[in-house]
User: Fold Aminotransferase class I/II-fold pyridoxal phosphate-dependent enzyme from Ornithinibacter aureus.
Amino acid sequence: MSTDTAATTPLAERSPEELQAYLEEQREAYAALCERGLTLDLTRGKPSSAQLDLSDRLLSLPDGITDADGVDVRNYGGLTGLRELREMFAELLWVDPDQLVAGGSSSLTMMHDVLVQHLLHGGLDSPRPWKDEEKVTFVCPVPGYDRHFTMLASYGIEMVSVPMLADGPDVAAVEAIVRDDPSVKGMWVVPTYANPAGSVVTQEVASRLASMPAAASDFRIFWDNAYALHHLTADEAKSADILSLASAAGHPHRPIMFASTSKITYAGAGVAFLAASRENIAAYLGHQQFASIGPDKVNHLRHIQFFGSAQGVRDHMARHREILAPKFAAVDAALTAELDGLGIAEWTRPAGGYFVSLDVPDGCAARVVALAKAAGIALTPAGASFPHGQDPRDRNIRLAPSFPQLAEVETAMAGVATCVALAAAEQLTAVG
Amino acid sequence: MSTDTAATTPLAERSPEELQAYLEEQREAYAALCERGLTLDLTRGKPSSAQLDLSDRLLSLPDGITDADGVDVRNYGGLTGLRELREMFAELLWVDPDQLVAGGSSSLTMMHDVLVQHLLHGGLDSPRPWKDEEKVTFVCPVPGYDRHFTMLASYGIEMVSVPMLADGPDVAAVEAIVRDDPSVKGMWVVPTYANPAGSVVTQEVASRLASMPAAASDFRIFWDNAYALHHLTADEAKSADILSLASAAGHPHRPIMFASTSKITYAGAGVAFLAASRENIAAYLGHQQFASIGPDKVNHLRHIQFFGSAQGVRDHMARHREILAPKFAAVDAALTAELDGLGIAEWTRPAGGYFVSLDVPDGCAARVVALAKAAGIALTPAGASFPHGQDPRDRNIRLAPSFPQLAEVETAMAGVATCVALAAAEQLTAVG
Assistant:
């Protein structure tokens, strides 16, 4: 058996002696890794400096102080946000401008506001405020976005996991849960290039989510379209038109869509958006008026002038892609070089978004993260993509290659691959 | 009796014939007013364009993308806000920087966040979340800020009014309510140049509010220091140091202070602040972390560079004063010219803030507002400064002279004075 062939024989098919030799190899490789004294970070889906630089013309905008309607953007008012900005992003998100609110800098805050409104007031079709329900449950596709889950946990909302598949949440599983349990008031969906697996919800899955019977009259889909425009290839996914689908299915108030420019312009100083049925928008603003006199319209005007048009946003995203795509290619290359064919790792090759989802053998994820940490490579804690941070199979690791430089991604991912190989070899050679 | 004397004889001391003649005069004056076809607006406490212009250097800031600590302000993170900005405003608000959070653009939003946290989680000294209390009551000094009251009303929180006096809330009345009723969980105080009466809470009143026994262990003072630096005269009021007073009195978690640059830089695009005990700050951030990854730090850096220092803020406020003080003088001059000595109106001559509080004869405020509206002068609805918009005596009108030009203030206020005179004369001559 040549060395080349050995390298691609699945570990599970190797003899104890071969495995022991592989383990020793990986121990040596890991020791060498540790000696390099790396300090690298693949933890969070943050844009890199080079990406942020793309938007630095914002720093000296806006020119002037009024928008196209003559509004002095410096003063109070205008809870729905500037019209031009809403029109620009309505086109990009496939909604009507009057179904879209442009808010502050954080879509997470808008999600929280909507959740709080439902807790304290209920939705427009709620029998009572959710705080007065004996139990509130959300369906959580996993792996998913940790901040979605921690927000729910902070309010004691129960979470029921369903698998996130390549075409979206396991819709049969969702249907069964939602149909029978009136405590199920909502679900999270990241429809486009989902965090972390990169899945894109298909039209068919979206249609079933929009139309499925729900025991709760006020069942909500929190449709977090955070990566709607964040393509990594020329094959640009189109997000399903959930508002129209839900409306056509007789559940117009079910979906509430969120988006932002956090990963288009500045992560801390972009503009967030909320889209929903006109009635939901009215309800949202009806509550929001007690909490705000209006969003930062200067920042709205800044963004209007920076982009110029919806096409300007698309062109801008192409420049992000030029920076990001090589980093994602580096992740794939490093994992492929070290792990392909060994049967110990599967990972996504996303066509967009900010993450790669890496599955290692059951029971190995926490070990991989610990090994990486000891070698100076920070990874998101194992389990972070699951409710309460608990991955029942301890196998999923979220990789975020956007923030480090390309060379750092290459170095870090080669190290991660070594950690995976070592952890898998340890497990396969463990006595008992 | 000369005409001059007649003009300053209280209406109540005049004969029926004299009153009838006065009524006719005012009717003629009002008819002439209506013929002018005015369109003037004294409704809201908005900065004028000239005031906003003072901050227009913000439009081309920040220079650079990092703060003094090397933080890239464009990216995610930093829930407490930039250190330099917190230090600058800590000095101005007489708090420690580590007791101060610099947030988004709206202090109203921060107030709402704190209220919602207490409703859904309770405070750190609450026996249970406020949502689980049978009743929650707030003490509301009146006249006060309408948005404070509508926020409470939106959550069904009961409001008990106490008079706002020249030295602050009627503290004996507050003490009696707070001592005996465990449902009383909080109160609003605008300590400096209060909306609308311009009162300044004295050190003595603040001390009693800080130390008074409360039936509720988690009684909160929402200390909205919106006008802390907004002086109209050289006699600059110092806000009482409520955090220290409360701490010394053994109630460190009682006050939560709010402030913002909404009326310092841009009303829609400033920076808001929250100050409280370290434990309260930790509790606030502990909840807030689920709703936000951090505030707009680019706007923080913009403000740091614009002001330069705390003294830069004070210097900037002096320029606001130059614009605002003549408008407030015009309000006083117009009311004095028409109404002084007639015994039908009292108004404040505030040393700061954004409002003049005008009291007309009981039962006349709504009539005055209606007359003004018909003459093209928009005033805040009568009763707006009271819970549920109900002034039990229908006598208070809030005047907001900041937004119109000086000449417009003069014209509008002469008109308002005519409306007051007419309404009072109508009432005094009414049969029955």
About this structure: Chain A has a mean pLDDT of 96. Residues 175 and 212 of chain A are 6 Å apart (CA to CA). Chain A touches chain B through 53 residues (CB under 8 Å).
